[in-house]
Amino acid sequence: SLGLLLLTVICLSTNAYLTFLLGKYTNTIPTTTSWFNLDPSKVVIVQFEGRELWKELYVGPNTTQYIPTIYNTASTWNYLYSIRHGHEYIQYYFGKTANGCRSHGDLPLYETWCKLRAMRQVQADFPRAEYFLYMDTDAVVDYQFRDRSLLDLLQNMTTEWLPDWNIDERPFALNQEGPGMWCGMVHEGNFSHCLNTGTILWKRSRESTSIMEHWWMSADDPYDSKELNPLGIPFREGSTEADWHPTDQAKAQSLLRPPFRQYVQVVSQPGQLAQTKAPCLSDCWIPHNGKLGCFIMHYCGKNKKPKEIGISEYGRHIGEHLKKRGRRISTGCYRRAVLESSDDEIQLSTEFDTALCRMELFGSDL
Question: What percentage of the chain carries pLDDT values higher than 70?
Answer without folding.
Answer: 64
